[in-house]
Design a protein that fits this description.
The chain is built from 14 helices and 2 strands, in the order E-E-H-H-H-H-H-H-H-H-H-H-H-H-H-H. By secondary structure, the protein is mainly alpha-helical.
């Protein structure tokens, strides 16, 4: 049997060739009866928030990268600290208490991608040492808008253009709009209103590619 691995916002789903989900997500404790567990690729299951029951019994076969980024396996890391890779754990929004125990070893660049409000507080305490690259990633963090507003001179407006919560700052500083990329931001209806009000010449080029802008074209 052939298997296909697809990533979506909820993690990796394991599908068979007919597109049926092989993990029984309703009960979260077992595979469907007809599945041969030996056929599954465990390193991918490690990324799956709903694959905890399989990860727990296959710790010797797991992928540390996926494990440390999985929001539902914090209890496993607590019991097996030797499996922790801080580089990957830093992005895990449910691992803040573990990160706080390793403040001196954190990768600030990766922490800037963590949307947990507690992660933002850690960044605030280190704001004076953030590099340009770290500010770039922070500008794309949906939970960092207040921090960015307090540090306007550090904002990378290009990066902020991809932040769905950045609309507030662009409303206050419309001259900072990155016209070429801004329409691709997820918060489309609000963005399009600003774009059309400003009527910048290059707006229409990118709007032609925007599926939500047909009524304007």
């Amino acid at each position: 049997m052939n298997f296909e691995y697809l990533r979506n916002r909820k993690g990796l789903k394991i599908l068979n060739e007919e597109g049926k989900n092989l993990l029984n997500f309703e009960h979260h404790r077992k595979l469907l009866d007809w599945i041969d567990e030996s056929k599954l690729y465990l390193p991918f299951v490690t990324h799956n928030p709903n694959g905890v029951f399989m990860i727990e019994k296959n710790l010797d076969k797991i992928n540390n990268k996926g494990l440390c980024q999985n929001p539902n396996i914090i209890h496993i890391l607590e019991e097996n600290p030797h499996l922790i890779d801080l580089g990957y754990l830093t992005k895990n929004k449910n691992a803040i208490h573990l990160l706080k125990n390793n403040l001196n070893n954190l990768n600030l660049l990766k922490l800037c991608n963590n949307s947990n409000p507690e992660a933002i507080k850690i960044i605030e305490n280190n704001v004076k040492i953030l590099s340009n690259g770290e500010w770039y990633d922070l500008c794309n963090n949906i939970s960092a808008i207040d921090l960015l507003e307090a540090n306007l001179d550090k904002i990378n407006w290009y990066s902020l253009a991809f932040n769905k919560n950045g609309i507030r700052l662009f409303e206050s500083y419309p001259d900072k709009l990155e016209w070429i990329w801004y329409p691709q931001n997820d918060n489309d209806s609000e963005h399009l209103e600003i774009l059309t009000e400003n009527n910048h010449s290059s707006v229409w080029k990118i709007l032609s590619l925007n599926e939500n802008a047909i009524h304007l074209l």
